[in-house]
Amino acid sequence: MNIQEDCMSRAMPQHAYKMGIATHQEPLVYMRTDCAICRAEGYTANTRLQIKAGSRTLIATLNTVAKEILPPGSIGFSDSAWEFLALTQGQAVTVHHAPQVHSLSALRKKIYGHTLDTGEITSIIRDISRHLYSDIEIAGFISACAGGRLNSAETTALTRAMAQIGNQLHWPEHERVFDKHCIGGLPGNRTTPIVVSIASAAGLIIPKTSSRAITSPAGTADTMEVLTNVDLSLDRLRKVITRTGACLAAGGKVGLSPTDDLLIRIERALDLDSEGQLVASVLSKKMAAGSTHILIDMPVGPTAKLRSQKQAEVLAELFRVVAEALGLNVRCVMTDGTQTIGNGIGPAEEARDVLSVLRNESTAPADLEARALYLAGQLLSMATGADEAQALQQAREILHSGQAWIQFRAICEAQGGLREVPIASHHIELRSEYAGKLRSMDNRRLAHLAKLAGAPSSPEAGLRLRVKVGDSVEALQPLATLYAETPGELAYAREYFHENRDLFELSPATSPLPATEK
Amino acid sequence: MNIQEDCMSRAMPQHAYKMGIATHQEPLVYMRTDCAICRAEGYTANTRLQIKAGSRTLIATLNTVAKEILPPGSIGFSDSAWEFLALTQGQAVTVHHAPQVHSLSALRKKIYGHTLDTGEITSIIRDISRHLYSDIEIAGFISACAGGRLNSAETTALTRAMAQIGNQLHWPEHERVFDKHCIGGLPGNRTTPIVVSIASAAGLIIPKTSSRAITSPAGTADTMEVLTNVDLSLDRLRKVITRTGACLAAGGKVGLSPTDDLLIRIERALDLDSEGQLVASVLSKKMAAGSTHILIDMPVGPTAKLRSQKQAEVLAELFRVVAEALGLNVRCVMTDGTQTIGNGIGPAEEARDVLSVLRNESTAPADLEARALYLAGQLLSMATGADEAQALQQAREILHSGQAWIQFRAICEAQGGLREVPIASHHIELRSEYAGKLRSMDNRRLAHLAKLAGAPSSPEAGLRLRVKVGDSVEALQPLATLYAETPGELAYAREYFHENRDLFELSPATSPLPATEK
């Protein structure tokens, strides 16, 4: 039998139907197994489909539905698919087999351990940005690039490809535009709002956008969102910077290097944050924001993200090589990452620490202030060429005179107003079993504890540390307060603490209390 | 505020509700965003949950539903989740946060490029087999192990871990138990049913189970399923082998190395089939089946899975090292992989070729017969120690005397009866534009063409080649017949052929026909 060229039902429009199913970001569509199109086209569960609605196109994974949860002649959409296509109920859409995604052969080449050229990397990033990759395929890309398997040329290509997709800011009136970034892994290390306030009070242009947390209990964007509006449009962002010299916004909605967000979602699911991806993620955002001079803070410590000086040097070298290839000026500084900075972990608790430093309160955590001043000094010395001691002194004067606090409020006002820090619904004290001296704290497990309590999706969730390394601790003395928005999360986090009491290491270990008093 | 230990709602039973949504294998559960448990526990889209129903436990990913598609107090299940838990409508189930999956830290270690020890690999495989990994996490594992990044010790550990989970066959009465496996990548290379028939007719024990296709248009199991029942229980399989000395079954339902099937599903989605995984996949099935002597057929050719002699030697060496560590006897033979074997591609078309060889029909593809005889001869020489020429002669006599055909029918009868090969609903001829001599065919693109037509999920879909390399071809002469079960798939595959006409390379290229006659 011969078939006619145009007998295919696949272009026959279907009616859009909102399923009311939230699937996080992966777009899903639903069709009835008994529908003519599924049968004629051989669509089955997990088939990748291309949906066209007006001028918009989406590639989504099919789930087939057997029962009457979908009216005949309709195609159902998950919430994210619905939003991406900006659909209205009943709107006509057409369904096709997803086109071949040519860059997938480059992906497989990378998975097999080969080096990719600029064109191949660009094609992968372009196709990811167009939502042509499934979650499984993005996971393959992330995993294949981890463990130092992206070389500096590949990382450069990745950075440029990511920076060139989405929005871009340009600052023709400014020769030098500044930014700072912390590699993370150190809970509570929330210096950015302080550093940005000091630097912009000193006259630097610093268009700072931050990610939300990847694997940590709070990113700077999560912390700033407790204090003000961080989801700015590109226009609004530009106005805030023009008015104040700076901003403290979330990267998400501004659309600077938006592909990064698609990658980060899968990195988060895998709890991974690899070198090449990290450099590309950081520098692509800065490039797209129009920055030219970037300070990279690299905390080094046994339980920080960078565990050794050597590991930090390898990363710093990759930053330098890639930055040079892209015409950016980068300074990497290695800082102490042996313990948490400040006393709060989690968005709201970290916001409290930031405010107390900016307000020069006597209870402000001294370590957070010292760290912020050091970084602000580094930025000022990059800008003015002053020696580091002079620049540090200038930063200190700006903070202690209250200029930084005035500047911080100006930025928050420009972004939509300064908010009160909220208080968590539930909390308990985490107490020591023993008396002794606090020898160390495990940053990773502290971060995990705060995440189990609900941070960062519940901004009030997290920890407030009540002790510092070196402190003497009595038996039953509170080591930290644990905050959560739900009793379930609080209990879940507490259970983890009880199984991981050694995350606070006391020395010398004296005999534990009788079991009944624990 | 302090909360009581037992105030949590998370153990409160919910009623199971079958959503009627097919999601392929990834288990999904659905809960209403407005339900008390979601709110109290902080469950959101993509949260991993542990569901208990009677004595069964499942880890599944949550999708939240906003509308009335789920009755209050209910938790919805995708089809695969429903089946895994063997639920009945309204059955009480309990929902918890998924427990920490400890082996995920070993997974990240592997992704970061480190070597895993036996315990770490065993823990990953055990957790995958318990359905504790999401698709994204399995994709990370597959990708991290590809590209030669599993060393031989890791591959040995992986093989043993996979073989030890699930069912196992033991053959205490037989000192030597045989098997054969083809590395694949060569469409139509369906020698197994012929080789197994010859070898078992000669008295060898050969408990052959086959995978379905991973990245090809048909696996041996897909082809055999056209001819007989291949989904046997372990008991039935044992009986078939005891009666006939062999079987030609699918690996799936027998439960030999079942974790392999969970990995293969994601390898298929990524269109990947890497070295270490491949060796572990093959040898774990053979070990679990109780085999001791295994012949590995390695077709080498520019468009086969193994593209060079060197690549084949590396793989053969890995097979030998791992087999030795596991106490198995492996012989690897490299065969010609420059063109397809037989004339059919796709389950039904390959089955036709197999039958014609076994029946000694004059139209039987000579290349398929020669290949099958060569491999059967190798197996017989492994068994008897006879030299290869003698063993080949023995294999030829068994085939040409009709003993192999009798044995094949006996195996099919024991498995449930021999079936007629079905005929596809739709077909078209793929014709040459030019006259010329056929210089080469691209195996990979031929395989892709058959897959676009619907193979292997539609067993009738695929190709029948009408020409061989070296043949002279007239303009408009059919090069192949394309079969499909739906007009959509037929048109889709034809479109690909028109964009990829050079997959049949003709030489010398004479001038094309005028456009109107194409």
UniProtKB/TrEMBL annotation, chains A, B:
Cellular component terms (Gene Ontology): cytosol
Catalyzed reactions per annotation: thymidine + phosphate = 2-deoxy-alpha-D-ribose 1-phosphate + thymine
UniProt keyword terms in alphabetical order: Glycosyltransferase, Transferase
Assigned EC number: 2.4.2.4
Limits of the Pyrimidine nucleoside phosphorylase C-terminal domain: 437-504
A molecular function GO annotation: 1,4-alpha-oligoglucan phosphorylase activity
Classification via InterPro entries: Glycosyl_Trfase_fam3 (IPR000312), Glycosyl_Trfase_fam3_N_dom (IPR017459), Glycosyl_Trfase_fam3_N_dom_sf (IPR036320), Nuc_phospho_transferase (IPR035902), PYNP-like_C_sf (IPR036566), PYNP_C (IPR013102), Pyrmidine_PPase_CS (IPR017872), Thym_Pase_Put (IPR028579)
Tagged with keyword Protease: no
Swiss-Prot/TrEMBL GO biological process terms: pyrimidine nucleobase metabolic process; pyrimidine nucleoside metabolic process
Family: Belongs to the thymidine/pyrimidine-nucleoside phosphorylase family. Type 2 subfamily.
Protein name: Putative thymidine phosphorylase
Organism annotation: Microbulbifer pacificus
